[in-house]
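Notebook entry, structure prediction.
Reason for the run: the old model in the group folder had no record of what sequence produced it. Starting over properly, with the input documented here first.
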Amino acid sequence: MKVTLETHGGQAAAINLRLPPKVLDTDTLPKNASAELARLVAGAVPVPTAERPDHARDAMSYTITVEDDGRSTVLTQSDTTMSPAFATLLSWLENHFAQQ
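New structure, fully documented this time:
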């Protein structure tokens, strides 16, 4: 499974604009970390909810693309609309990339 994280907007938008997306291939992870990431991805798949306002000055938006077995799933949320499951997945990915 390949997971790609892209960030958009926020106060650092001009800095992040030219940065490439961060990519993680789960084949490079220990088995337990790969299983945890797969569990977090499965939990972050959106379910229909009541709409929340998506207007916040300098809000960041995040796109997580998951490619697995020829299928691609794109998860996009922002600081103002982020579900707890998406936030957990995002936090896991940010922590992983910070250790690189």
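Summary: The longest strand covers residues 60-68.
The old model has been moved to the deprecated folder.
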